[in-house]
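queue> pop job 88
queue> type: inverse folding (structure -> sequence)
queue> payload:
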């Protein structure tokens, strides 16, 4: 069973994080989920999902949303004793989706002020796969330099830029295209969008 860490930060595009967790669980992956406080706020604003409350309440709400799947583990942003904080329990890959430019900046600087940042640092130092899905536009020079620095350090930069060659008809089609690209990078099979060759058949 693949173990994938998913972190949702305060950038717009919370639906991407939720959709990725759904697909990873469907693929029978173990998912370790971390949401920042800003990520929770954006999630509520953009999707209506209110996962606030105490730690226990939040975990109950998240578990209920994903059908009580036993492969889902939820950790608090400030829980530096979580397994994700140690190289001895490093997941096979980590996806920060959506990834705010503030998070990208702190990762590029090697700052580990919370579990998202520490887990990403661990994934890089253990030479596992770190996928960052930034959702920001336009990008200034600081953003670009931070993303380039992270790419050179081994991170995979996968911006939330849906394609249109598959003739999307709904918002879900656009979201699925980005999630499909993430799953491709994780080497997880899916049918979220038709491949280019399939469009020609």
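queue> result:
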């Amino acid at each position: 069973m693949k173990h994938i860490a998913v972190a949702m930060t305060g950038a717009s595009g919370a639906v991407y994080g939720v959709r990725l967790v759904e697909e990873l669980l469907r693929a029978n992956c173990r998912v370790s989920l971390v949401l920042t406080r800003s990520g929770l706020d954006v999630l509520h604003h953009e999707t209506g999902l209110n996962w606030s409350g105490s730690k226990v309440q939040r975990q109950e709400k998240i578990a209920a949303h994903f059908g009580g799947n036993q492969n889902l583990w939820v950790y608090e942003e400030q829980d530096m004793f979580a397994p994700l904080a140690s190289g001895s329990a490093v997941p096979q890959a980590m996806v920060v989706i959506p990834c705010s430019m503030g998070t990208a900046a702190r990762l590029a600087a090697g700052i580990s002020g919370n579990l998202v940042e520490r887990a990403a640092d661990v994934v890089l130092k253990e030479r596992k796969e770190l996928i960052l899905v930034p959702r920001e536009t336009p990008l200034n020079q600081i953003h670009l330099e931070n993303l380039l620095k992270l790419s050179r350090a081994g991170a995979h930069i996968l911006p939330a830029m849906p394609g249109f060659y598959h003739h999307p008809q709904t918002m879900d089609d656009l979201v699925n295209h980005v999630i499909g690209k993430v799953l491709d990078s994780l080497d997880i099979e899916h049918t979220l969008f038709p491949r280019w060759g399939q469009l020609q058949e």
